Amino acid sequence: MHEISLIRTIFNTLEAEFSPAELERMAAIDLRVGRLSNVEPVLMQNAFRAVTTAEEKYQQVELNIEAVPVEIYCADCGVNSTIENYKFACAVCGRPNNNVVKGTELLIHRVRFGE
Amino acid sequence: MEKAQKSTRAARGTVTCDNTTMHLLKANDFVAESIRRKMAEQHILLINITSSAGSGKTTLLQETARRIGDKVNMKILVGDLETERDADRLRAVGADALQIVTGGICHLEAQMVWQAMENLGLDGVDLLIVENVGNLVCPASFDLGEDYRVTLIATTEGDDKPKKYPRMFLTSDLMLVSKVDLLPYLPFSVDAVVADARDINPNIGVLQVSSTQNTGIDEWCAWLLEKVQEKKAEALTPKTENHVFSHSR
Known about the structure:
heterodimer; A: 115 residues; hypothetical protein PF0899 fold; three-stranded mixed sheet; three-stranded antiparallel sheet; 3 helices; 30% strand; elongated; B: 249 residues; alpha/beta; Rossmann fold; seven-stranded parallel sheet; 8 helices; 34% helix; globular
């Protein structure tokens, strides 16, 4: 998708939340990226390095990306099913279902700071 | 956002983030909700039309304007990377259309629609159609505050597209199989494309259309007019549960 602009959004979001002194000690950013978010983890890593190098900031920061599989919730069976091959159906009863509860996220999940 | 160590003023160690404040498309979704509220207040039906480039969105809207242009007060916003060509084509059939030139951006964002709406003027409007940039990838992730998302898939594209671009079909309410007049000449199975789409989204509606041969256009226009009436009759509570993902796609 738009990895460079997403990286800038990450920095803007963090700069609004934390002070420059805190961000100087930032050691790692953990993202959660859903399989349905149309964001490719490898391209995010490349874009992250491109922006930190070009702008000479946050070069000490490690970017960790957790790819989140797609999950649906079936209210009849009360279970979550992981979706593979884009067949959206409950693994227990087999009924079609697109009640997606996981897999669309594009989130900063955790930020780690050094002392 | 919850800071793990509240005793010290400066963040140290691990800080676990709140899922809504740290959602990276939150700026878009915030504007999309504002659009949804405004449309609810004014009882305007907002339709977001998406597809690959060249699947017949503008031709369908030309035909739509010819058919129902005198029945409803309809306006059209049309997004492209460059040129006014689509808006010109729509104005040529009497539609009130405004071009959004994205200047290289491959999708429309809610903020662009909001600004264009202000230029277009919405007094007395019943139906606002947004023709998105031709692209099955990025427009899927950007909520524009629409009531319904309608995705075209042309018979010339091949019947294997829904599973290749799952998020678009997952978030669409209606799939229009377009250019069905070409079916006799193409290895395209309507049954296969519908089965594929419904594997992803069991609730997706399907219509078959040909804008040049007037196939299915009556059904499409009837669907639009029905939804316009529903929106008019709707109480003043913004409808946000139409989609699979109500706040973030």
